[in-house]
Structure formats: structure tokens, C-alpha cells
User: Fold this.
Amino acid sequence: MKSPRSYSRIFILLALLLVVIFFLNVSLGSVTIPFSEVFNALTGGEVSKSSWQYIITDYRLPKALTAVLVGSGLAISGLLMQTLFRNPLAGPFVLGLSSGASLGVAVLILGAGVFGGVLGTWLTSSWSLVIASALGSFLVLLAVLAVTLRVKDTMAILIIGLMFGSVTAAVVAVLSYFSSAEKLQQYVFWSFGSLGNQSWGGIGILSLCTIVGIIIAFISSKSLNALLLGENYARSLGVRMKRTTLVIIITTSILAGAITAFAGPIAFIGLAVPHITRQWITSSDHRILIPAVLLFGSIIMLVCDAVAQLPFSEYTLPINAITSLIGAPVVIWLLVRKRKLFF
Amino acid sequence: MASEKEHIVLEAKALAIGYTSKKQRSVIAEGIQFQFSEGELVGLVGANGIGKSTLLRTLSGMQKALDGDVSILKRPLSSFPPAALATQLSVVLTEAPSSKNLSVTEFISLGRQPHTNWLGRLSEKDREMILWAMEQTDTLEIRERKCFELSDGQMQRVAIARALAQDTPLIILDEPTTHLDLYHRAYILKLLKRLANDTQKTILFSTHEIDLAIQLSDKMIVMTTDSIVVDEPCNLISQGHFTDLFPKDSIFFDEETGSFRVK
Assistant:
């Protein structure tokens, strides 16, 4: 096993790349702002136009930060799920977390018509969306945890998570069938996912959840490494399986739940980034994989966001469509070229 | 022999194994009794489905005993917290590691987990132990390879190296010779014999290679539907215990050669 130190060059390179991409991401947008001005705005220097300063600090910077948090958080939770379920196709959403969030939001938006008037308007404000989707994922999480405590087999948890997903999707479908076109559109827009329009307060909560999740993931690296051998071997090495399973599921839920609450369901980052990372990092050691996946996740999310912005045009594409358009072919390419999807 | 008494590594007293569900318990075998000392190689034989794996799972603490006691180095198995047990007992399972992407070195290094700190950092001693385990099992040349590139024989050697790296007085192996050709079956069992001799570890393995086990084991456990007998192979042969191992319609046990023959 190579020591983490021998990977330091790759990490320095990735960190530099992240800084460059972050800067590029902030520079690109519908309004063209010269690089030097962007640099000044970011470092607190003088900016020639106050509108530029406003665009960068109140719009682009929060959006880029959200992209970093969303990318790293989702990618880490994908890695955790793949190791826990010993399944290369596992991602943060296999537990039904995003379906839970969708259900919460669907009930809020599509059901808001029932309350009508002022209450209805208040209910569909952005903060209540966040709360609804957080509640939705939290409920699904509680259900998954209840199952985890009863069922020993992790594969069963995986299947049950998928079933929760199907049930909530069905409820959403029924709700959509009975709602107005306007409400439906609002729901569809939420499901596109969005990195923009985050308040600094929201980013604060999101970064708290993401950082806590990542720290717990890193602390669990030793057990995660043992899990690579399979459940029985891990047990024989002294890993307390029930506790470890619980910690990993709760961590994933904190990460994926908070991110879905703020940015909507974002596909493929959790599934694809760990696989992309494994193309460069041959180690299976989570002490190396976790920081690497974190960096790759941030970089890829920033790139996806820059593409979604359609630089130099006025249009913004839904971020969820871009991550799927980039993520799905990557997974297919990996399968075709490598014949196997390892984890 | 008084000194040997002090070095009993694995002991079972009136042990009953099997499964319990809510309503009933199904006993697979009971009244199992044995003591194995350090440096002993013990072969466990019996027909398919007789409960060899259940016995090994019970002895390694993966499954609860229905009745009776198992103790490792005079301490009851159930009193070991998981981390402490991992320093006394290592296992080699029939299952391959779930992650085929692990390299041989990574796979073997994971055996050091019970001895490393909270992050799993390998010390100089850990590295020496890993190197030693690789030397013992002839896996040094393949250490850079990934698990999915290994043959069954190589994989088995790597799995044994991992258990060696764990550095425990007791190793339990579940059918280490399945899927292997004749050469590798003999190779693996001879390796276990040498390790038991050289390192004074107690090594317990289940196998279908009865003639090889008779030649190499210090003691054997013979499981049949009626009884479980533990003794030295030559005594077991003279008492005719192998004769009852399988139904007698197509094979018989030849006591002269110590092997089974087709009728």
C-alpha cells in the first residue's frame, strides 16, 4: 500500500486545477467580465464597474461555491455507498433520498393549491422548498434506518431503498396528475436542479453539512477499507458492522439530503465521479480516495456548471441535464473500455 | 505434558451448533468436545451439508453457539470484543474480496488493521510483518497485481498471507482447497503444515481432500450425521471412522493406503 505521501503530487496538481477551474467558472457567464476585474473582485481589490462587483460577489461566487459543495458532497456520498453496498452502481440516491426530497417538494408545490391564497404563496417560497425536501429525505432516511436495524444484509437495504424510490415516484406521479399546469411547471423546474440563487445563509448551512459529512467519511476510512474485503472479513478484522453501516448511511443522508434540499436532485455526480477518480488513482485506500474524489467532484461540478451557463449567451441549461449528459456517457465509456466497473 | 496443557489455543466443551429462529432451534450437531494446542494443524472433514461451515462459523464467532462453550486461549469466545478477537483469530473465507480492484499488497495489508491506529497507518513493524507474510506464501512477485488478475491458486495464497499478516495464534480456513488443481491443493495444505510447525500457530481448516488431510494433519475432526470424532488421523483410521463418512454405495475407504477408492 503506497503511503498517502506518494500521492501528494497528484493532490497538488488537482488542487491547482480546482483553483483555475473555479476562477474560470466565476469569469464565465452571460455578462463578459475581463479576467483582471474578476481577479480584483475576488481578492477584494477595486473593480471598475459596481455592477460587475455585484454580479461576481452576489451571484457567481455563491454559485461557484455551491457547485464545489454539491460536487464534493455528492461524490463522497457516492463513494461511501459503493463501498458499503459493494456495488459499483450504487450512488447517493439509491437509498431513495432524492425521491424522498422530491416527494416533500411535490407535496409542497402540488399540494399547495389545496391551501390556496396567502398560505399557498408562503408555502412555495424558496426556504419552504428547502425545508420540504429536507423533511422528505429525512423521512425516507428514518425508514431506511429502521430497516437497517432489522435487516442484516446490506443488499436488502439497497433493494428496499430502490423500492422506497419507486413508491415516492408513484405518489409524485399521482400528485402531478391532479395539479395545475402552473404548479406542475414549478415542480419540474425544481427537479432540474439549480446551483444559483443561494443566499449566503443557505450556503453556510450547506457547507456545514458538507464539511461535517466529509469529516465523518474520512474518520471512517479504516472501516471503509476493511469493507472492501466484504462483510465477513470486515467483521473478522474487528469492524462493528451495525455501527459502521449506521454511520455511513447517516453520513450519506446528511450529505445527499442537504444538497438535494438546496440544489435539487442532481444526477450522476455521485455515481460517476468515484469511477472517474479510480481511472487516475489506482489505490483503493479510502484515506487517498476520499480527498481525491472530493477534488474531482468539485472540479467536475464546476465544469458542468460552466457548460450549463452556455458562456457568452443569455441561456442557462438545467444543471441536472448537463450532469446526466456528461455522466452517463462516461459510465458507458468506462464499461466498454474496461469491460468491468470496479469499485 | 503438563506444559502443553497450558497452551491450549482452541477448546470446545459440550458445544452444540445450529440455527435459531423465532419459533424453533435446529441443532446441526451437539456434544462437540476438543482441545487443540499451539502448533497443531487440524483438518475438518465431512460430507457436503453436514455442517462443517456452521462449525467453523461458530468457532470463529460469526454465529452464536446453541449450547456449550468455545474458548480461545482459555478465554470464552463470547467475552471477546470484536477488536480484541481480531488479534487472536484470523479467518480465510471461501468468498473472494468484494473489491476486485484491491492490489495484492493492499489486500494483505488490511490484515494489519487490528494492530494499526484509528486511521489504519502502517508502522515499520506492520510493513515487516506484511513482507514476512508475503515471503511465507510466495506472493512477493505478484504483490503489484490486482485481485481480478489472479488465478484461484494465487488468490488462495494471498488470502492466507492476509491471515498471516494479522498475526494471530489461531487461523481458521474454510475449504482453502476448493477450485484448485491437485498441485495447488497439496501446495496449500503443505504450506499450512509448514506454517503450523514454524510459527506454532494453531491452524484449523475444513476440506474435501481427505487423503491429503490424513497425511498432513496432526489431528482431524470427522463429522458424520451420527457423531463428531476428534483424534489423530492414524487412530481415526484404525477405529474405522472414515468408513462411515460417506454413503457406502459407490466408494469405500481403504485403510491400507488411507484413501477412498471407487467400488
User: Anything to note?
Assistant: The interface with chain A takes residues 60, 62, 82-87, 89-91, 93, 95, 97-103, 105-107, 109-111, 113-114, 116, 118-120, 122, 148, 166 of chain B (CB under 8 Å). Chain B is about 30% helix and 25% strand.
